[in-house]
């Protein structure tokens, strides 16, 4: 990860409270966070409680990270929090933080490598830590540290898909169905994310299906998209939240000759009494059943 530019560092102490929305600890670029890529934790000591005198200590001493989640390394590990029999009084030099500006410290690392855990563990546990000088006191001396700090990290949200199958298809086009044509197959359409103005807030929709067997023969229920309303079995079910669904067992729904195998379905989602292309969802959605199943 690139270091902060020098002119930005010079201004950091002044803009940090606004930039971090008052948070004492945060990631430099949260929108770019990936557990297996380098990241930088930044802590503004002036935004901590200073109950244990950490701000004053930072005027004369180096600051160190002391971290216990997503994982805490045992004594003797290269990234153990402290060294020796009184670890709290002897922070590990490997956890020394970088001074960015007055009272502002950072630590850069790659989470999955540093903690030796999977990315899922990082997302589950978040970062829990504090900042202290090398000698944190204790053992009869006053503690010198921040309060416990944390930074939440969330996995990236899955993209909202407008049309998908259930079970979900595999492959780059998500068009290979890992189930048999004797199992229930569904097409689900999320009208809430429809970009096409003429299809937004649809109230009634149908599927126009063209099926193909393993020899390339074509089978239809409605002869064309304009005739789908003549076949109630092609109507999609609408839920209150704007989701439309069509379900069937392909082998029962599409009648093909004995000895042939259903191979592919092509699906269009259309309004009843279709007149123009304004009355259908853009795209033909193709699903392959691998000649009867995977």
Offer a concise description of the structure:
It contains five helices and 15 strands.
Gyration radius from CA atoms, angstroms = 30 Å
Q: Which strand order does the major sheet show?
A: 1-2-5-4
How many domains, in number, for the residues? 2
Largest sheet: 4 strands, antiparallel
Shape: elongated
Distance between the amino and carboxyl termini: 43 Å
The fraction of residues assigned to DSSP E strands is: 25-35%
Q: What pattern of helices and strands is seen along the backbone?
A: HEEHEEEHHEEEEEEEEHEE
The unreliable regions are 1-21
Instruction: Bin the helical content.
Output: 10-25%
Number of helices: 5
Number of strands: 15
Oligomeric status: single chain
Structural class: alpha+beta
Mean pLDDT: 90
Descriptive keywords:
294 residues; alpha+beta; Immunoglobulin-like; four-stranded antiparallel β-sheet; 5 helices; elongated
Annotate the secondary structure layout.
Elements: H1 6-19, E1 25-27, E2 39-44, H2 54-57, E3 64-69, E4 98-101, E5 104-109, H3 111-115, H4 119-125, E6 127-132, E7 149-151, E8 163-166, E9 185-190, E10 206-213, E11 218-220, E12 237-238, E13 243-248, H5 250-253, E14 262-270, E15 285-288
Antiparallel strand pairs: 1-2, 2-5, 3-6, 4-5, 6-7, 8-9, 9-13, 10-11, 10-14, 12-13, 14-15
Notes on the protein architecture:
The protein has 294 residues and is of the alpha+beta class. It has 2 domains: 6-151, no CATH class; 163-288, Sandwich (Immunoglobulin-like), CATH 2.60.40. It contains 5 helices and 15 strands. The protein has helices at 6-19, 54-57, 111-115, 119-125, 250-253, and strands at residues 25-27, 39-44, 64-69, 98-101, 104-109, 127-132, 149-151, 163-166, 185-190, 206-213, 218-220, 237-238, 243-248, 262-270, 285-288. It has a 4-stranded antiparallel β-sheet. A 4-stranded antiparallel β-sheet has the order 8-9-13-12. It has a 4-stranded antiparallel β-sheet with strand order 11-10-14-15, with no helix packed on it. The chain is elongated and about 85 Å long. The two termini are 43 Å apart. Residues 1-21 have low confidence and may be disordered.
């Amino acid at each position: 990860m690139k270091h902060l530019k020098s002119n930005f560092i010079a201004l950091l102490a002044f803009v940090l409270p606004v930039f971090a929305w008052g948070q004492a600890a945060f990631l430099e670029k949260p929108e770019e966070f990936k557990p297996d890529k380098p990241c930088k934790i930044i802590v503004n000591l002036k935004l901590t409680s200073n109950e244990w005198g950490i701000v004053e200590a930072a005027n004369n001493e180096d600051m160190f990270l002391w971290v216990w989640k997503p994982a805490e390394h045992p004594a003797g590990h290269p990234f153990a929090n402290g060294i020796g029999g009184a670890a709290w009084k002897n922070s590990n030099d490997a956890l020394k933080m970088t001074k960015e500006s007055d009272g502002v410290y950072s630590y850069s690392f790659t989470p999955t490598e540093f903690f030796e855990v999977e990315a899922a563990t990082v997302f589950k546990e978040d970062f829990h830590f504090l900042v202290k000088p090398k000698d944190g006191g204790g053992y009869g001396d006053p503690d010198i540290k921040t309060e416990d700090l944390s930074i939440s990290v969330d996995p990236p949200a899955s993209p909202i898909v407008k049309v998908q199958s259930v079970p979900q298809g595999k492959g780059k086009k998500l068009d290979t169905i890992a189930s048999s044509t004797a199992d229930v197959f569904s097409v689900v359409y999320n009208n809430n994310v429809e970009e096409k103005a003429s299809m937004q807030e649809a109230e009634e929709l149908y599927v126009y299906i063209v099926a193909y067997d393993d020899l390339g023969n074509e089978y239809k229920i409605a002869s064309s998209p304009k005739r789908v309303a003549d076949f109630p079995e092609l109507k999609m079910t609408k839920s209150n939240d704007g989701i439309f669904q069509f379900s069937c067992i392909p082998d029962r729904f599409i009648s093909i000759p004995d000895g042939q195998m259903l191979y592919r379905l092509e699906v269009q989602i259309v309004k009843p009494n279709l007149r123009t292309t304004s009355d259908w969802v853009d795209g033909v959605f193709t699903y392959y059943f691998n000649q009867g199943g995977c």
